[in-house]
């Protein structure tokens, strides 16, 4: 393994993020090649977390753009501060000066409200991490617009002119696949797929994130979660749910799992009525088997 | 960073890109360049690292991974690593963990959903022989539709379905609505408001395009008489589910089941696998009671912004009054009621079954859906 990749891995792990070779390699390449990183995977496997952890590891700012339906360029890029411009015009009414000068003054940077994308390309000191979260929720028109920004990291504001990135941001996009992204956007990015973690990895995550939890309890709970994932539920519990459950159990001072504890707390990782019933029916009966498997 | 990689590795990388392109994975020259650049940045003696790097650069979706793995194997051995033991890749290790236990769910009742799910899993394009259930007069015609249906047409179906959804959802609206903060200054309102302050513009008013928030509810008939078409229908439904955020999917025969969660966010194969668990679908159809059940259990899913699509042949064994009652409620609450009937593809078909006759007055759009061509036609002619 190359030294740089190992370093990235270490940096991520310092931020209490349990990672693997795939994540470290992709993050390294995205930074080295200067390309955006598109992360896909089921909900709750820690896609967004990568961007946060990366910003922490690099000691730089995290700029987040949460996508939603109807998100448009004004909310993502920039907007003129109209009230301030109006006020300025009022104040300048009495002062001499040509109209052109006055106009130039109100269409200058102080009157610009920077939204996440513009913020990301105008960072003065060092490259920030730009997180474009749940890009699949935005409209296709916005995707096309995003493509334009991501390809040259340059934005043109009619009244000011082009603004070129001083420090190219490290871009991380996440998608839950609620809608298919365009091929153009996909091609522009490096691709990383994160799946549900293996037993060992998940156990490691639980132990590093919820240190209060005991050894026995942590492995028992991870085993139950892994078993639940194989049940074909309609809402499969992600790592976030595992951690919620672990934290709840820790708060309840539980030391080990039994049918009663599981029954009382399974709402932490099963969020659907039918899933709850299914879990009770199919896993509840042989809970002991699940708990003892592998140990 | 070491010097430029040996010529051979560049050649091999380009060959890999070409091979990928041939399998249908879009690899543009830009990506070939990126791949070669990536190779200069990594440890080429590390198989896993080379694999992960090239995969990250050259694939764009998780469905491409298996093909990539295969071709990478070739690439790696051509580089002279023939002797090296093949290490398990991360993906393989992961998929082993996540592999679902195969279900043995189709021993009983070889009809209904379980029956054709078993058939869909086959990827062969040749025609499959199927015992046509009732409606035997249309058998020969529809069997051809179904038989010619190759699984690689899934992508085309998905594309058409997405276009149909876009048409249905057609956002944004042409109307503007005043908002507190928006994209455009609403001059008329702003000036009017300035009258209050003696003609001084202080508060600006904004306007924004109205958005049509369309929701889609798909009710798919999976009873025995629909066996022939259900591959197409499930693929269509799968595509619908994954093209718009607000889509809810249900299947019904004698009762109703919500399957949105099974179709969403999953690879097609995985979605089928989880659907295969939903067994016990067979024989008769109770459209009326199923729709009534939908109305009473999920009333929150249908409002004036909702388009309801029913995929059914209208062979109903229930009471006509029940069906008309359920449709009245649905029609009153939904924006549009679309009924797609596979049998309508047959020129000699007339909607004379009791169920269909009862339903017709309530339907806004009544169109055939029996093969890809009809799907395309639907896209072209769909007027709302």
Can you walk me through this structure?
The complex is a heterodimer of chains A (295) and B (384). With 295 residues, chain A is of the alpha/beta class. Chain A has helices spanning 3-14, 21-33, 47-58, 73-76, 82-92, 99-106, 116-121, 140-152, 183-188, 199-209, 215-229, 239-251, 259-265, 273-282, 287-292, and strands at residues 37-40, 62-66, 78-80, 112-114, 129-133, 154-157, 161-164, 170-175, 190-193. Chain A has a five-stranded parallel beta sheet with strand order 2-5-8-1-9. Chain A is elongated, with a radius of gyration of 24 Å. Chain B is 46% helix and 11% strand. Chain B is built from 16 helices and nine strands. Chain B has helices at 7-22, 29-41, 47-58, 65-81, 90-98, 112-120, 139-147, 154-169, 187-195, 230-241, 260-263, 268-276, 287-297, 320-333, 354-359, 372-381, and strands at 176-179, 184-185, 206-209, 215-221, 247-252, 256-258, 306-311, 336-341, 365-368. A six-stranded mixed beta sheet of chain B has the order 6-5-4-7-8-9. In chain B, strands 1-3-2 form a three-stranded antiparallel beta sheet. In chain B, strand 7, helix 14 and strand 8 (336-341) form a beta-alpha-beta unit. In chain B, helix 13 (287-297) runs parallel beside helix 14. The model of chain B is unreliable at 87-149 (pLDDT under 50). Classes of the chains: A alpha/beta (295), B alpha/beta (384). At the A-B interface, helix 2, helix 5, helix 9 and strand 9 of A face helix 2, helix 3, helix 5 and helix 11 of B.
């Amino acid at each position: 393994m190359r030294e740089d990749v190992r370093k990235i891995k270490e940096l991520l792990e310092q931020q209490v993020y349990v990672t693997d070779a795939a994540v470290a390699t992709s993050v390294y390449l995205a930074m080295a090649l200067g390309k955006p990183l598109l992360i896909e995977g089921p909900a709750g496997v820690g896609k967004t977390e990568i961007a946060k952890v990366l910003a922490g590891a690099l000691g730089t700012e995290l700029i987040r753009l949460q996508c939603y339906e109807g998100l448009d360029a004004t909310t993502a890029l920039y907007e003129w501060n109209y009230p301030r411009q109006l006020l300025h015009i009022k104040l300048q009414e009495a002062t001499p000066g040509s109209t052109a000068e006055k106009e130039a003054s109100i269409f200058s940077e102080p009157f610009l409200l920077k939204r996440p994308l513009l913020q990301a390309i105008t960072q003065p000191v060092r490259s920030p991490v730009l997180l474009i979260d749940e890009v699949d929720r935005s409209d296709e028109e916005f995707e096309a617009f995003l493509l334009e920004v991501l390809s040259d990291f340059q934005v043109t504001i009619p009244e000011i002119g082009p603004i070129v990135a001083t420090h190219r941001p490290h871009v991380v996009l996440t998608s839950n696949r609620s809608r298919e992204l365009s091929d153009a956007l996909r091609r522009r990015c490096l691709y990383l797929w994160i799946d549900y973690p293996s037993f060992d990895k998940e156990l490691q995550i639980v132990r590093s994130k919820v240190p209060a939890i005991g050894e026995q309890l942590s492995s028992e709970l991870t085993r139950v979660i892994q078993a639940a994932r194989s049940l074909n539920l309609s809402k499969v519990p992600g790592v976030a749910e595992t951690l919620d459950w672990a934290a709840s159990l820790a708060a309840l001072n539980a030391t080990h799992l039994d049918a009663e504890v599981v029954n009382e707390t399974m709402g932490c990782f099963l969020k659907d009525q039918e899933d709850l019933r299914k879990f009770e029916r199919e896993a509840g009966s042989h809970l002991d088997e699940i708990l003892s498997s592998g140990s | 960073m070491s010097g430029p990689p040996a010529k051979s590795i560049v050649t091999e990388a380009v060959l890999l890109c070409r091979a990928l392109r041939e399998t249908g994975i879009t690899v543009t020259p830009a990506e070939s360049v990126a791949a070669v650049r990536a190779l200069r940045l990594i440890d080429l003696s590390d198989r896993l690292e080379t694999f992960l790097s090239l995969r990250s650069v050259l694939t764009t979706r998780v469905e491409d991974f298996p093909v990539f793995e295969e071709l990478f194997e070739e690439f790696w051995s051509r580089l002279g690593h023939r002797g090296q033991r093949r290490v398990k890749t991360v993906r393989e290790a992961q998929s082993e963990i996540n592999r679902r236990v195969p279900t043995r769910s189709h021993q009983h009742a070889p009809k209904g959903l379980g029956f054709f799910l078993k058939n869909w899993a086959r990827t062969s394009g040749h025609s499959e022989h199927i015992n046509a259930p009732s409606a035997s007069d249309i058998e020969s015609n529809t069997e051809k539709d179904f038989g010619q249906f190759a699984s690689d047409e899934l992508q085309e179906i998905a594309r058409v379905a997405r276009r149909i959804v876009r048409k249905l959802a057609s956002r944004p609206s042409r109307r503007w609505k005043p908002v507190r903060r928006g994209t455009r200054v609403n001059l008329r309102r702003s000036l009017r408001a300035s009258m209050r302050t003696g003609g001084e513009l202080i508060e600006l008013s904004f306007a924004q395009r109205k958005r049509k928030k369309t929701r889609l509810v798909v009710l798919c008939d999976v009873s025995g008489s629909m066996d022939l078409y259900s591959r197409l229908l499930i693929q269509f439904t799968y595509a619908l589910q994954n093209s718009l955020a607000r889509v809810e999917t249900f299947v019904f025969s004698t009762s109703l089941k919500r399957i949105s969660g099974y179709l969403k966010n999953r690879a097609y194969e995985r979605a089928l696998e989880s659907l295969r668990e939903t067994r016990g679908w067979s024989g008769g159809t109770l459209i009326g009671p199923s729709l009534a059940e939908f109305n009473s259990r999920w009333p929150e899913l249908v409002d004036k912004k909702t388009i309801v699509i029913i995929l059914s042949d209208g062979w109903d064994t229930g009471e006509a009054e029940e069906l008309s009652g359920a449709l009245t409620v649905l029609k009153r609450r939904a924006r549009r009621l679309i009924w797609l009937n596979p049998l309508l593809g047959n020129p000699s078909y007339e909607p004379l079954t009791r169920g269909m006759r009862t339903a017709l007055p309530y339907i806004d759009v009544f169109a055939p859906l029996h093969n890809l061509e009809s799907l395309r036609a639907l896209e072209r002619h769909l007027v709302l």
